[in-house]
Amino acid sequence: MSYVKYGISPQLVERIKLKLKNPATKDRVKKAVEGLTKADLQNRATIKRLMKQIAKALNEPLTSQQEEQFTDFILAQKIDPNNTFHLLKLWGMFR
């Protein structure tokens, strides 16, 4: 639960995980993140735009502080969507 270090509430993460179990919602989120590159995930503006799209798809209003916390967390992870190890690490974090 390394996201807690960034001030992200475990209750919020659990709510989001529950909402992602709905196939229709999951598909909307998958479409939003489709085609992202490592450079996209290291760009603060792109991440913020993505966070707003995902929050809308999940019907989960985020405060500006929560957006900043998620953005900082994502930037710190240095995620490469083409690296299987990175994807497995993320999967383990939010299982």
From TrEMBL:
Which InterPro entries does this entry report, sorted A to Z?
SpoVIF (IPR025942)
Q: Which domain of life is it from?
A: Bacteria
Q: What is this protein called?
A: Stage VI sporulation protein F
Protein source organism: Paenibacillus alvei (Bacillus alvei)
Lineage of origin: Bacteria, Bacillati, Bacillota, Bacilli, Bacillales
